[in-house]
Amino acid sequence: MSIAGLLRAAGHRGGAATAVQDASGHRSMDFRTFVQACLAFGNRLQQLSVRRGDRIALIGDQRFDYLLADYGVMAGGFVRVPLDPALSASELAAQIGDAGATLILCSHSRNELGQGVASLTRLPVQGIEALVQDALHSPLGPPCGFDPSSDDIASLNYTGGTSSVPKAVVLTHGALRAAVQNIVLARGARAGDVMLNVRPLWPIAAIVVLAHLCAGGTVIAADSFSAERFPSLVQQTRASFTSLVPTHLVRMLRESDRGALTALQTLRSIDVGAAAIPPETFAELVDLIGPRIGVLYGLTEAPWSCYQPPNEVMDNATIDPQRLKSAGRAIFGCDIAVDDGSGTPRPAGEGEILIRGAHLMSGYWNKPDLSAEALRGGWLHTGDMGVIDPQGRLSVTGRLKLMIRTGGKSVSPGEVEQVIREVPGVADVAVFGLPDQEWGEVVAAAVVAEDGQSPSPSQIAAHCLGRLSSHKRPKRIQTVPTLPRSHYGKVQLTRLRQMFESPGNDPK
Predict the structure, then answer these.
(1) Are 120 and 88 in contact (CB under 8 A)?
(2) Between residues 399 and 91, the one the model is more confident about
(3) Of all helices (H) and strands (E), which one includes residue 130?
(4) Residue 25 lies in a domain
(5) Residue 180 pLDDT level (bands cut at 50, 70, 90)
(6) How many domains does the chain have?
(7) Shortest CA distance to 42 belongs to which of 115, 147, 124?
(8) Best CA proximity match to 164, nearest among 458, 426, 493, 505
């Protein structure tokens, strides 16, 4: 089944029930109207001199016109190329050139950026809102004449991870259908359940939203996350589900009134992925609002592969400290394993995390050697390190490529970060390796202080002295105003290393 088939089925099941609406409630669409508009959008694209299989770039925000365009592109047999509007025009132009896109679709709010990209790529640019209005007011007419197969490419998603060169992940209609199925089975959403979306839709979030619609749920398309406004928005929309990143949780605890957070008790699940949740943050929120955080593990290359439902953080009505670090078990349609260096996938133990399933990417766009390496043996080699316990629960311990090699020994950044977080006045920390002629790499730590606090590098170094072996102790400690993070909440190490280029702030 293609994306068009998933949409048609959702339209038949949902009928006159509300599919999407904005946070104010002033604009909404029922399932029949929404699905017809998506299909009509695909038909409308045929009139713009684009052909079956052409790549179409999307630059937009999280309003539901973007959803109509996103799904309409795929339903029409074209390949969506969703782009991050936080990037510069030149960066976007490079990705569009790599994809070989033939058309740019742009939200009105991103018009200046879209025009800048169009001038660099010499491609036509069309406004998303205008095309949506055309689709809404035009009869559906005959289908596009092409219903994609499971093996046809649906999407190219550009990803740079934390330190690698950006590359495009190839996802077919079959892979996205499998991802949608996995999400529906894992979350347990029902018809009428409300999902509040405050995440940008250009990454995999649009597929999570599609899964909610396929389950018969209603999606509230809200503006970007605000720690101060989020609890009241949950209360106003009566949301049962939402999706956040760990940074959002930290901000809520810092910036929101504790009394206001009780509004989150109406949620059945706050699904959190992309990066590890600090255990102390996780525990504090469970104490405040109960077990309402669902933890997921996945990558753009393999969306939603593991899931820990909210109630599983508890054991006999108490928080299980180990499950605060767990990403749960493999979802129904996935296999997970670890490679301990032997080259043989093992169902339990410690090593590089491997994933297998119908939701996997087909490879990286125009990178056959990299694709073959990543998918060798039929498993996706994630580059993440983890432990699978005898009960099948996965704990992610770090990035294989981010392990610090100093003096011939390996250091896990997460272990050092955990120790530094114990220092009074430390709000956030990132540990990474810096090149060194003598040691190969040295351990470096970027530390963010709590408001009104100023833990010194020497204080942090003294604390590490009693907690860490000598090769694990940071040789460079620097305080920074904030950690540069991607939308997913992952620390951007390239930018962080640039902050450390000038010497200074070494522990004494």
Answers:
(1) no
(2) 91
(3) helix 128-137
(4) no
(5) very high
(6) 1
(7) 147
(8) 493
What distances in angstroms separate CA 280 from CA 133, 168, 291, one per listed residue? 47, 35, 14
Q: Average the pLDDT over 126-131 and give the result.
A: 95
DSSP secondary-structure letter at 161? T
Report CA-CA distances (Å) from 57 to 89, 107, 160, 193, 369.
13, 11, 17, 31, 25
In this prediction, residue 502 carries a pLDDT of 53
pLDDT band at residue 345 under the 50/70/90 scheme: very high
Question: Which pLDDT tens digit goes with each residue over 397-446?
Answer: 877 777 787 876 778 888 899 899 999 999 999 999 888 777 878 899 99
Does 208 reside within a domain?
Answer: no
Q: Is the dihedral of CA 14, 17, 22, 28 positive or negative?
A: positive
Checking if the pLDDT of 144 tops 60, the result is no
Kindly state the tokens that stand for 162.
Answer: 């934390």
Q: What letter would DSSP give residue 491?
A: B
Tokens 């909210």 locate to 310
Provide the residue range defining the domain that includes 462: 403-499
Report the alpha-carbon distance of residue 126 to residue 109 in Å, rounded.
Answer: 13
- What digits encode the pLDDT tens for the residues 25-40? 889 999 999 999 999 9
Classify burial at 498, counting beta carbons within 10 Å of its beta carbon; exposed 0-12, middle 13-18, buried 19 or more.
exposed
Q: How far apart are CA 315 and CA 447, in angstroms?
A: 34
The side-by-side arrangement of strands in the sheet containing 103-106 is 125-127, 103-106, 55-59, 79-82, 153-159, 167-172, 363-364
Residue 425 belongs to a domain: yes
Here the CATH number for the domain that contains residue 472 is: 3.30.300.30
**H or E segment to which residue 272 belongs:** strand 269-272
- Residue ranges of alpha helices (H) inside 361-426 are 368-374, 413-420
pLDDT for the residue 142: 52
The whole-model pTM stands at 0.82
**Which candidate, 94, 128, 124, places its Cα nearest to that of 109?**
128
Judge whether 201 and 80 are in contact, CB under 8 Å. no
Domain presence at residue 131: no
Give the C-alpha separation, 320 to 244, whole Å.
22
